[in-house]
Amino acid sequence: MRTNARKLLYFLLCAIFLPLYAHAEAVSLQMGDQGPSVKQLQQRLQYFGLFSGQADGVYGQQTASWVGEAQRLLTELGGYSFPEIGRADELTLSLIHSEDETVEAILFTLCPGSRGERVKALQNRLIDLGMLSGYADGAYGSATQAAVMEFQVYATELELTTLPVTGNADPYTLELINSDLSVYGFKAPVYFDESRPLSLSPEHLYCKSCILIDGPTGEILFEMNAHTPMYPASTTKVLTLLTSLEYGNLEEKYTIPDAASEVPQDSSLVPVYPGEKMRKIDLLYGLMIRSGNDAANALAVIDAGSVDAFMIRMNEKARELGMYESSFVNPHGYHDENHYTTAYDLSLAARAGLTDPQFCQIVTCLEYTLPATRKRDSLTIYNTYEIFDSASPFYIPYAAGVKSGFTSIAGFCFVGAAQWEGRTLIAVILGAPSRNAAWTDLSRLYEYGFALE
Question: How far apart are CA 210 and CA 347, in angstroms?
């Protein structure tokens, strides 16, 4: 009996302590490891928003990178040190699995160097609050840090927090940022009351610069930084179109010059090909609907003999229209530090264009078929602006043209017109953080203009 009792005790002890011993053996995890311990680690990283993949129990490169991110936070914000970044040693595992509030707060914090969807969500919120003028790229850089610091100063002044101003988005800062700040009188794009269009102020807009004018008279109805030089991206093509129309010969067929292919690799294209023959009118539609940089260069050579000669005329045209705050170095708007304009100047170009029936026909066209050439079949091109799509939440029923533009440096830009009850408005938006933000600003400007008596 004693022997049997000893055996039973032995098996009971094994049942209790062997799993603990096995867990104790997993005092570190690294690339190539698999199993429940890895899965638990991945799930814990998911809890902190540090792991965006599937918790599959396989310690691969993605798991190593997010372990490294946890170690970075613990090092920079907690003062810990680790022998090898990306390997989950005993200290790393104990901290990640810890339920200590201070440790958890560190792992929930976003700070310079952080990346991913949580950073993107923070940036979008800061944009909505009007505190970040950049773009939600998911990378916590100096602009995001400065915006968080600005918010922390604001929160301190309102006595919402006594935490130091660090520029790091700790859990409490994140909670405040995502709270309803309108109760403190905070003005921001996200808090604009759409039912009161005349209450619009610059704080309610996402863009960096804008203007709203009355089309027939040119009277300025609303402006924000309207005379600040900005990069216009493809809204440049409004003036390109105006200049090219001066040269006439719209129905004439021309051989596409080699200059059509001499555009940056990431350019928007119609496309058109050197050597094919096209009517000039078809090039103009390709210029505006498809925002073809290749068409812009082709038109410049066809009209003036060279791109350089066309640019001389284009800048002369700008001066004739009163666009004294502009400098154009190419006909398409691809970024160049010496290529700039202002919201005010672009409104002058749009106003001049809208007095020309041919200009109006081109910029308000939503669908156009380019005839076949010997190098391609016929091609139907479409205007895809959401403001013209009745199924889109950004639909503006009274919008009519004109041209958008985007580069990572210029942001999203738009020159537009709207007609309602016999009134015509022209709006220019430069430096919006996104396409949808620009549509929101555009709608608010139009509603403001049409609400004026």
Answer: 10
> How does DSSP classify residue 203?
G
pTM to 2 decimal places: 0.84
Tokens 């791109």 locate to 307
- In this structure, which amino acid lies at residue 302? I
Core vs surface per residue 205-244: b (16+ CB within 10 A) or e: bbbbbbbbbbbeeeeebbbbbbeeebbbbbbbbbbbbbbb
Provide the 3-class DSSP secondary structure of residue 35: coil
Taking only the tens place, the pLDDT of each residue in 322-356 is 999 999 999 999 999 999 999 999 999 999 999 99
Q: How many CA atoms lie within 13 A of 346 on its CB side?
A: 38
Torsion angle of C-alpha atoms 120, 122, 123, 128, degrees rounded to 10: 130
pLDDT, tens digit, 9 for 90 and up, residues 348-379: 999 999 999 999 999 999 999 999 999 899 99
- Write the CB contacts of 157 (distance below 8 Å, at least 6 apart in sequence): none
